[in-house]
Design brief:
With 331 residues, the chain is α/β, with parallel strands linked by helices. It is 28% helix and 17% strand. The radius of gyration is 19 Å and the shape is globular. The two termini are 29 Å apart. Bound molecules: iron/sulfur cluster (SF4).
Length: 331
């Protein structure tokens, strides 16, 4: 079934759907949630696998073919590889990828690759055990690195991206270790500027260590050369001039990439978010459970996407941080 491509009111074609499959997580990253965690959604509030698959099939029929599964931590959702198989089998879905903290990769990498998952983004903010613990409140770096190695043994899983959130007065000490990690391993490291999506609403612009500052620190030691930007890309990617790997910078605060944004998000409880920083959401779960047919759901989606925000307003006077934190939105 092919439907009219999904387009927003600014003429942008939507091609990328990020689906949060749970709000729960086994980590407690300081820039995301408090040590005690958050009040989790009840099971009945969360979309079932069948409900997710039905919505994904509808989105993909409208041309939204790149699917990223997120959380919380998606691998904590029971039966997650089964969901990946269901979504990979949807005819119009081109690619299924995941953003994970890697803690359960050692256990699940094989099952995920066999279920059709083709791209992996693993979040690691420090390569030093004590500092990893300080930020995530989990003594888990060795297990995450073992999971990464298991994943790397599957050729289908490459390129594997390692994402590090960049926070001033923390990440400076990680910059060269991550550059060397990118040079000696097959992983593509990307630094992501810290965004105002923390549960405590404690974010300030001063805490943002910009991509440009990090790039300058690296290129002073390991010269970098820019690669052409892919359409809709969030990262600015560079290769090491001596050919030893690539490194990227995702700079939503200092160098926003909203102009050709083609992304929308579905939360674990079935709300459509047209921007990471949306202050409004459209409920798809209620009409879905009330028996709406596909054309009714399609109309609700098109109306919402037509109102998609042109860009975010982070750092601008009057910016309002969304009520939902990153763990309840998904990356
Ligand atoms: S902030 Fe919103 S508009 Fe900008 S790139 Fe992200 S999702 Fe797209």
């Amino acid at each position: 079934m092919e439907l009219e491509p999904l387009r927003d009111g600014h003429g942008r074609l939507i091609g990328d759907l990020r689906v949060s499959v749970t709000d729960r997580c086994n980590f407690r990253c300081q820039y995301c949630m408090p040590a005690e965690g958050l009040p989790w959604l009840e099971r009945r509030e969360i979309l079932s696998f069948e409900e997710i698959a039905r919505l994904v099939a509808l989105f993909s029929a409208m041309g939204v073919r790149d699917l990223r599964l997120t959380g919380g931590e998606p691998l904590v959702r029971r039966g997650f590889p089964q969901l990946v198989r269901m979504l990979s089998d949807i005819e119009d879905v081109a690619e299924v990828s995941v953003t994970t903290n890697g803690f359960l990769l050692e256990r699940d990498a094989a099952a995920l690759v066999q279920a059709g998952m083709s791209r992996f983004n693993v979040s690691i903010d420090s390569l030093q055990g004590d500092r990893f613990y300080e930020l995530t409140r989990r003594d888990a770096l060795p297990q995450v690195l073992r999971g990464l190695e298991v994943l790397a043994s599957f050729p289908e899983a490459h390129p594997i991206k390692v994402n590090a959130v960049a926070i001033r007065e923390f990440t400076e000490e990680e910059v060269l270790p991550f550059a060397e990690f990118a040079r000696r391993t097959p992983y593509e490291v990307r630094f992501i500027e810290y965004m105002p999506l923390d549960a405590d609403h404690a974010w300030t612009p001063e805490q943002v260590l910009t991509g440009e500052e990090i790039r300058a620190a690296i290129t002073a030691v390991y010269p970098l050369e820019p690669e052409p930007r892919e359409p809709h890309a969030t990262a600015r990617v560079y290769r090491f001039a001596d050919g030893h790997g690539r490194i990227g910078f995702i700079n939503p605060v200092s160098e926003p990439f909203c102009g050709d944004c083609n992304r929308i998000r579905l939360t674990a409880d079935g709300r459509l978010r047209t921007c990471l920083f949306s202050l409004n959401e459209t409920d798809l779960r209620e009409p879905l459970r009330a028996g709406a047919d596909d054309s009714e759901l399609e109309q609700i989606i098109r109306d919402a996407v037509w109102r998609k925000e042109l860009k975010h307003h982070v750092g601008e006077p009057g910016f309002i941080q969304p009520a939902r934190s990153m763990s309840a939105i998904g990356g």
